[in-house]
Structures are given as structure tokens and as C-alpha cells.
Specification:
Elements (H helix, E strand, L loop, with lengths): L1 H14 L19 E6 L4 H15 L2 E6 L2 H10 L4 E4 L5 H6 L4 E15 L8 E2 L1 H8 L9 H4 L13 E5 L4 H13 L1 H6 L12 E3 L1 H11 L3 E6 H5 L7 E3 L5 E2 L3 H6 L25 E9 L9 H15 L16 H11 L3 E2 L2 E2 L2
Parallel strand pairs: 1-2, 1-3, 5-9, 6-7, 6-8
Antiparallel strand pairs: 3-11, 4-8, 4-11, 9-10, 12-13
Helix pairs in contact: 12-13
């Protein structure tokens, strides 16, 4: 596990050596060193880490982001111990009603949840949604099961036991994954359903995307689900997944972007899984930063509130150029425009900050 984490950090660090921002044209922070606190999703962590590193270089504003899972990010927002939360699962109406004040969602990029595995030679596999549901519910026990081999002709599938690896923490990645399976498998919908935390009938639990990737890589015969960057950074194979059109689609930036061809509601809370796009990858999603609409809480100053708003604006505008090198799909213009409109509703003492 330690070796894996070092590898991922190394990949992320190398990715941070890109072009310099136009720092000379930006204002440097003037007052005391400002530090903003965020917590939540591991799904976009490599992208956020890169953006926060670049933002510090440009503005001398440090962003301390803890990748503790979407569930943890939402809990810390409820406790008001962070300046912003991050979640791959948009908050439900029930969660929003429990927040104590209005929360606003800002999509930051799109990502793909991939099915990754550890097999001899790591062959390229095709999987349907029904097969994935049966694998992760523990019904399919061996890799050479006829249902898998029948759609993977010519692939030498070994007679080894499957070890299912899933998230052990409250996870937006799990929400996206289970949201897809709920749509394509009536049995999954009935017995397991959609959520950030599930009552898993089989398998091992790993903490965060790094934990799942690490367990799959270390366990022969293992299969798990992770965001695309975590498979890429570890040279792990991913399956092509059948979409609603019947096409088997590889998770790529392009196929992930196609899933966003939807009408975005004003609050941006929308599911992209099981896309209608013929060439769209079916387990794709936005990932969101969440803010309280009123930022005067817990002794926060107006200057701190402005710094939060400035950071979020930079993330969904200039920060988007760091998405593709890390295998995330940048926001479509419609999402950028909606974010811009929603950010203008963020207030301090009831007055818009922008």
C-alpha cells in the first residue's frame, strides 16, 4: 500500500510540472497568509491537488484539502469545520434539509468510474452492467464464468476465484457506481440500491480510491471500481462497459465528456450514469464543490469569504486546463455558465460577494 501511495503521489507531482500560469497578471495575496480548508471526495483528488498547488503559486493562498471521502466532506460541512466540501454524490433533498442553511453545488469536472482487475497478463475485457452487478453482489465467483467468457471470445480467462474490492468509507465513487447498477439491474436495485455507503454482500473494503486501487493491485484475481486516474497512474487495466445503446465503451476523456450532454438543472444536481449518448461511457459523473450560500459563519471574515469565492471561480474557469492531463473531462460551457450564475448568489451578511 505504501508503495502504491508513493507511486500516485509521484504521478501527481510530475503532473504539477506543467506550464506556468500568467502569474504576473494576477494579484498576489496582500494580507496575512490565508489558508482555506476543504474536505471530501478522493475521486477528484489528483485534479484538486494540482489546481491547489497552482493556485498557491499564483495567489499565495494555501488550500488545505483532506481527501476523506464524499461522506466525510458532507459531514464536515454540516459541522462547519471547513470552508468548502467536495462530493461526487450530489446531496439529497433530505441531506440538504439537515444542513441547517442553504448549500449550493458547483460541478468542477467530469470523471469516469472504471472497473479494474488483476489477472495474468491483464487482458482487455468487456463487461455488461448486469455482469458487473452480479460480480459485486458475489453471484459470479470465478473469472472463467461462461457469462464473462461468452462476451470475451479469444480471451484466456483463468479458473481463479474473484475477490471483490469495494469502498469501506462513505464514498461518492460508490454512489456513482451503485447509481449505474441500480439503473441497469433490477435485482441490484431491489437488494442493494444506490448510496455512498452500501451493505455489501461480498468482498473487501478499501479506504478511498487509493485504498481500492492498492488492494486490487496487490490481490491476484481481484476486481474493484476506481476513478480513471487511479488506474492510469498504476498501469492497471480497465474494462469496456456496455452502455444503453449496446456499445462497449472504453473510459476515456472523450467518452466521459459525451455523458454530459444533458439539460443541466439550475441546482446542477443531475445524474449522468447510463447515458443516452451512443458513444458515451455509462459510469460517468460530475464531481461537485459545495458551499453554504451565506458565508458569514464561525467567525469568518468578509475577506475570507471573498477568498473562498475567488478560489471556486478560478477552479471552474482557469483551473479547468489541468483536467485533461490528469484524465478528467473539463466542464462543458453550460456547466461553467451555470456555476457563474450560482456563484453570484453566494452572500456575506446577505449581500452578494461578487
Amino acid at each position: 500500500m505504501k508503495k502504491y501511495i508513493v507511486v500516485l503521489i509521484g504521478i501527481m507531482f510530475l503532473a504539477s510540472c506543467g506550464k506556468k500560469e500568467e502569474a504576473q497578471t494576477q494579484k498576489q495575496a496582500t494580507a496575512s497568509n490565508v489558508e482555506l480548508l476543504g474536505a471530501g471526495a478522493t475521486f477528484p483528488y489528483p485534479f484538486y491537488s494540482k489546481m491547489f498547488d497552482e493556485y498557491y503559486k499564483i495567489n499565495n493562498i494555501k488550500v488545505n484539502y483532506q481527501a476523506i471521502g464524499s461522506g466525510g466532506g458532507i459531514r464536515q460541512m454540516f459541522d462547519k469545520t471547513v470552508d468548502f466540501g467536495a462530493s461526487d454524490a450530489f446531496m439529497s433533498d433530505q441531506e440538504l434539509s439537515q444542513a441547517g442553511a442553504t448549500i449550493v453545488h458547483f460541478p468542477m469536472c467530469l470523471g469516469a468510474v472504471c472497473i479494474t482487475y488483476n489477472l495474468p497478463g491483464n487482458p482487455k475485457l468487456k463487461l455488461t452492467g448486469e455482469l458487473i452487478a452480479d460480480i459485486f453482489s458475489g453471484k459470479i465467483k470465478k473469472w472463467n464464468d461462461k457469462r464473462i467468457s461468452s462476451i470475451n471470445p479469444g480471451v484466456n480467462l483463468p479458473s481463479v476465484n474473484m475477490t471483490v474490492v469495494h469502498r469501506s468509507d462513505g464514498s461518492g465513487t460508490t454512489f456513482i457506481f451503485s447509481d449505474f447498477l441500480t439503473k441497469v439491474s433490477p435485482e441490484w436495485a431491489k437488494n442493494i440500491g444506490t448510496g455512498k455507503s452500501l451493505n455489501w454482500p461480498a468482498g473487501l473494503g478499501g479506504k478511498g480510491n487509493p485504498g481500492v486501487a492498492g488492494l486490487v493491485k496487490q490481490t491476484p484475481g481481484a476486481v474493484g471500481y476506481v476513478e480513471l486516474i487511479y488506474s492510469k497512474s498504476n498501469n492497471m487495466p480497465v474494462a469496456d462497459v456496455q452502455n444503453k445503446s449496446g456499445n462497449f465503451i472504453e473510459p476515456t476523456i472523450e467518452s466521459t465528456s459525451l455523458s454530459a450532454n444533458v439539460v443541466l438543472p439550475p441546482d446542477t444536481r443531475v445524474s449522468l450514469t447510463n447515458t443516452d449518448a451512443a458513444q458515451g461511457y455509462p459510469i460517468s459523473s460530475f464531481t461537485w464543490v459545495i458551499l453554504y450560500k451565506e458565508l458569514n459563519y464561525k467567525g469568518k471574515s468578509l475577506d475570507q469569504a471573498k477568498q473562498i469565492v475567488n478560489l471556486v471561480h478560478w477552479m471552474f474557469t482557469k483551473g479547468q486546463k489541468y483536467a485533461e492531463p490528469l484524465f478528467y473531462a473539463p466542464l462543458p460551457q453550460a456547466a461553467v455558465d451555470r456555476n457563474d450564475a450560482n456563484l453570484k448568489t453566494i452572500t456575506y451578511n446577505g449581500k452578494p460577494i461578487l
